[in-house]
Amino acid sequence: MASPKTPRSAARKTPAAKTAAARTTAAGTTAAGTTAAGGAAGTPATGAATAKKSTAAKKTTAAKKAAAVKKSTATKKTTATKKTTAAKKAVAVKKSTATKKTTAAKKATAASGKAVTAKRTAAGGKSAAGAEVKSPAASTAKPESRTALVRRARRINRELADVYPYAHPELDFLNPFQLLVATVLSAQTTDLRVNQTTPALFARYPTPEDMAAAVPEELEELIRPTGFFRAKAKSLIGLSKALRDDFGGEVPGRLKDLVTLPGVGRKTAFVVLGNAFGVPGITVDTHFMRLARRWRWTAQEDPVKIEAEVAEIFPKSEWTMLSHRVIFHGRRICHARKPACGACPITHLCPSYGEGETDPEKAKKLLKYEMGGFPGQRLNPPPDYPGRPAPPMGAG
Description:
Layout: H1 7-13, H2 15-122, H3 136-139, H4 146-163, H5 176-185, H6 191-204, H7 208-212, H8 216-223, H9 229-246, H10 255-258, H11 266-276, H12 286-294, H13 303-311, H14 319-332, H15 360-364
């Protein structure tokens, strides 16, 4: 039995089929060749792509490095900024602390001022005359101007003149030589003790010539009550010899001559010039120095500097009497340890009011000499002196 013929086998046997088959084969061969050619041509393309990838990779690496560098720089900048910020905060904290301390100090000062004011108010806030006390230091917050200081100082001088119209040198003397000797003896002691000592001294040595010839031991014994008697005896004999030899036995009336004498300084010289020769001068003793500072006339400690600053405040014609008034007030009311503030007539002008006893009754018990009803310092006071003369040495 013959096998059935398939379309394929039939086609192969026909010329048309053979031709189609040949064409198909040729086409397949061409396609294969094309594929092969394409495969051969693909090798250079692949190299170019690889080169491109390598270049891209390098660029990526460079970009990453640049980014890393930028990041590192940014990190450094951030760190520096943080440090700067921390430093600024530290400075701000210090400033804040300093400001707080300053504020606290100001508050403490203000509280202290209020306490002083309250103390004055509690004490009555009145002077001995009953007038309301208004201290310049308490009544104004601004520093006192130079003009205000001068006006206040001169007003103090005028009011002290009303209180002590009899102010005078509190040493007994009859001539310039006696005043010079008494002033030298008054160092480190009271005028009262000097006045009790000089009667016997001047009876024994009435002139510079007599004192220049004195036996040191005998002179020392006479002036022993005044203290430092050996040094003082040496000065008295020395200045007496200088007066005898260089000035014809007379006390000179010039400052530059007086200060050349043994034991004589500016204070002693101005006492002699002002009270024996009428030459104006400021006597800066311990009382004058104390009150000049309490009244804010000066802040100096050196007597010569105090003298110079006070001299600029007052006219020269007032210097001698100003000295007497201030010293009188210092001895009688404005004492060194316990000022009698409650009995002071110039509290309204005093920036140091309240340093002493402000109660009027207690303050009155602190007054001395004629202000307290006691004898003065002179055995022979001037006629207008309102108090009692001092007793001589040894009197009850």
